[in-house]
Amino acid sequence: MKELLKLYENKQPEIVFNWKDSETEAEGWTVINSLRGGAAGGGTRMREGLDMNEVLSLAKTMEVKFTVSGPTIGGAKSGINFNPHDPRKKGVLERWYKAVSPLLKSYYGTGGDLNVDEIHEVIPITESCGVWHPQEGVFSGHFQPTEADKINRIGQLRQGVIKVLENTDFSPDVSRKYTVADMITGYGVAEGVRHYYEIYGGEVKGKRAVVQGFGNVGSAAAYYLAQMGAKVVGIIDRDGGLINEEGFSFEEIKQLFLNKDGNTLVSDQMIPFTEINEKIWNLDTEIFAPCAASRLITKEQISSMIESGLEVISCGANVPFADKEIFFGNIMEYTDERVSLIPDFISNCGMARVFAYFMERKVQMTDEAIFNDTSMTIKNAIQNTFDHNSDKTNISKTAFEIALKQLV
Prior knowledge:
Helix content: 40-55%
Order of helices and strands: HEEEEHEHEHHHHEHEEHEHEHEHEHHHH
Strand content: 5-15%
CATH superfamily of the largest domain: NAD(P)-binding Rossmann-like Domain
Mean pLDDT: 95
CATH architecture of the largest domain: 3-Layer(aba) Sandwich
Number of strands: 13
CATH class of the largest domain: Alpha Beta
Strand order of the largest sheet: 10-9-8-7-11-12-13
Largest sheet: 7 strands, mixed
Number of helices: 16
Shape: globular
């Protein structure tokens, strides 16, 4: 696996597009690792301090993810080095998408990512640049449908991603009009835990869980884990967090979900960040869902969790460990050798899978069909890993080997 990984990591990306904004200090990159299958896909993120290497590592991560979620295309990513809270953000995004629109028409598909919203920013701004849908390039380059078929499938994709959830099994409050895009990634993270216990033995109900991050992914993961009967004992967010060693009830987690301010945890019981960051890693817990930013989790933190009874990690963040390597650094390897670590490209593939699902010819548009498709995709990937290695350790190593054999 290490040799395959080295070959894959060291292979130069096929396309690197670099942009410097004419009106602000913003700089952006689209990195296309390969045009496997004639196209490449990956979202657009924005954060201050982002550089080309971050975008490259995420593009390579996307390519691995597509081996699980489909379609069989290359990995790509876009990133803009700019403060997402700056009032000039909208203008930056408008100029960025205008510059990158020829790629989006031909062979590159994008979507929302960190600090860039799929529904309110990506779709309307790309439309104004003459792109039918941010995934149009995947249709053009990979599927190569007839014009009529392309129109039908793009319509299906457009409708599906912003579909308002109507089923109370999937929506915390149907009156609030949560969409597929709001909930699907966190749902997949929780389903990864459920399928892990089904396949490797055990059950979610009664297990204690810690969730890192309470944005779209973390809050949804906490919601669905609590719905399954897991006891969420700790939540750590950017500005603080909450601990309840008895476990928050499903109703309490649901209320926290409904009360969040955008992507931020809100509670009058909040523990300041420095205090919770000392305590949370020592809680007795079996399940950990890292759903905050990439490269945050230290070896000390994970060691403390392992000593406190940790059994399984389902990654909501891409590359959650504080490793320098693109994939599988020392901290990730140390973790994988000691507990069950479901890698990000399986557990957080929900949105990529939704795109792939809606790109197929004619599919069912019900909440159940969409969510069950993501659930089964994750289940099949975990089952495939188990079939190659039935041990509860080295799950990520095995999963990477399966994926890389398709790419190298």
